[in-house]
Amino acid sequence: MSFSLSPVMAEKRLPFPTFRQRQRTYVLFHPPGEGREPDLLFQHSGKGREPMSFFTLLCRNGHTLCSNCKTVHDWCPTCRLELGDIRCLALEKVAESLELPCKYSTLGCPEVFPYNTKHKHESQCLFRPYNCPYAGSECFVTGDIPFLVSHLRDDHKVDMHTGCTFNHRYVKSKPHEVENATWMLTVFHCFGQYFCLHFEAFQIGMAPVYMAFLRFMGDVSDARKFSYSLEVGGAGRKLIWEGYPRSIRDSHSMVRDSLDGLIIHRSMALFFSGGDKKELKLRVTGRIWKEQ
């Protein structure tokens, strides 16, 4: 959809667009009785109706398009003329005068921002939905923590445990097939919070490794209120990791690639497993505690 400033506004010298917070509607109003729908400072995208962002462009017939849509369309959606690089400064000035609520206002965010700083806030808003922390397959589900806990349990069939200590055994019959190792996720509920324990195999360069780490189902500031330890060993040897859990705001791949967890090289993992080293048998123990 394209947008244009109403000539009625110029002719009748209407005031700047108003912000109606209760209705959550942001419009350039036509005078009553004009028989037309109001012009909106919104664009229609695959995610629904969203505010126009960045700068706006004009086609030769005066229709406007935001710069985000310009990356998709090389022509005006209204008149089909080729778009140039002419900016609509008048509409940009109107947009700069607006104060809009965070798009996560329906999730509880009370903040209102000038139009040109709204997007920066939304990228860091504490009320924005969380991504599903499951790493075994690509999942695009988002939501709050209670919803994601139910989603992990019902849709991903993740094991749920209550308590602040864990003692898990990981067994794999073909430990040399690192690239085909199953990613495992277990959710723990303690201190009124939820934590995700990940265990998986991957390669650092050409070296196959196993890794275990904990993620907190909440924001970074709350994650740092907790600490955890992981321990694995065998044959009189022991490896211990201690740190604070990363928030699920940090993607699974970000935590894994930063090696922020217990790293066990395959040769050591097989040594811990004992026997003929043809089967992986790792027992990972640990605990979670709250910092004072």
UniProtKB/TrEMBL annotation:
The protein's name in its UniProt record: RING-type E3 ubiquitin transferase
Keyword Zinc: yes
Catalytic activity: S-ubiquitinyl-[E2 ubiquitin-conjugating enzyme]-L-cysteine + [acceptor protein]-L-lysine = [E2 ubiquitin-conjugating enzyme]-L-cysteine + N(6)-ubiquitinyl-[acceptor protein]-L-lysine
Keyword Zinc: yes
Domain of life: Eukaryota
EC class (word): transferase
Start and end residues of each SIAH-type domain: 97-157
Molecular function per GO: ubiquitin protein ligase activity; zinc ion binding
Record key words, sorted: Metal-binding, Transferase, Ubl conjugation pathway, Zinc, Zinc-finger
Gene3D superfamilies listed in its UniProt record: Apoptosis, Tumor Necrosis Factor Receptor Associated Protein 2, Chain A, Zinc/RING finger domain, C3HC4 (zinc finger)
Pathway: Protein modification; protein ubiquitination
Pfam family, one: Sina_ZnF
UniProt record similarity statement: Belongs to the SINA (Seven in absentia) family.
EC numbers: 2.3.2.27
Species of provenance: Dendrobium thyrsiflorum (Pinecone-like raceme dendrobium)
